[in-house]
Amino acid sequence: MQNSRLTTIVTQTAGSDIPSIHSVTLIDSLLGSHRRGEMLMLLATEKVAKEKYIKRNDESAEKLAKELAAYEKIIDTDAEKKLIGEFKSAWGAYLAEYPKIKELALQEVSGEDTSKQILGASSKSFNLALAALEGLEKVNIEQSHKESWLGENIQIAETLR
To answer: pLDDT at position 19, please?
Structure first.
């Protein structure tokens, strides 16, 4: 009986918890990479450099979409479902602002207009996306910790038998 419970815990941890933590961490990294690319695109002085950052951001967004789709397949708690919904909403709002920022960079517009664009809705939605990812990391780590603790207690109980 205890071995069956222990096997279930190990299977859950290896099959969902650890991959979930990995996915959320990768999504977080890709989101940060996209934002850095956006800033570098605005700071670049040559068109070739701006286009390089645009291409890199397109690649980051594509990788993020693929990782997000993979992660959604292993979501197994209501808390994760809620937080991933918050992330997707914020990510969508952020992506809606990105073409405006890209256009400002390509037109080499700087100053107050660019500052307002980058610090306005783009920044707000980016921060909301980050907050949702931080929540997902916390939920997944707590879930993994709880299951590890349960597994350890089962093993201790078996040893004391």
So the answer is: 84
Rounded alpha-carbon distances, angstroms, from residue 8 to 53, 77, 91, 144, 147:
45, 16, 34, 13, 10
pLDDT digits (tens, 9 = 90+) for 111-138: 787 788 888 899 999 999 999 999 999 9
* pLDDT digit string, tens, across residues 12-57: 554 566 888 899 999 999 999 999 999 999 889 999 999 999 999 9
Q: What are phi and psi of 110, to 5 degrees?
A: -135, 175
H-type alpha helices, 44-120: 47-74, 78-106, 112-119
CA distance 74 to 4: 22
Tokens of 60: 């980051």
Rounded Cα distance between 93 and 87, Å, is 10
Residue 84: partners with Cβ closer than 8 Å, 6 or more residues away: 68, 71, 72, 75, 132, 136
pTM of the model: 0.82
Token representation of residue 58: 């397109």
Q: Which domains, ranges and CATH numbers included, belong to the chain?
A: 2-160 (1.20.120)
Residue of 37, 40, 43 lying closest to 56 (CA atoms): 37
d(CA 161, CA 153): 12
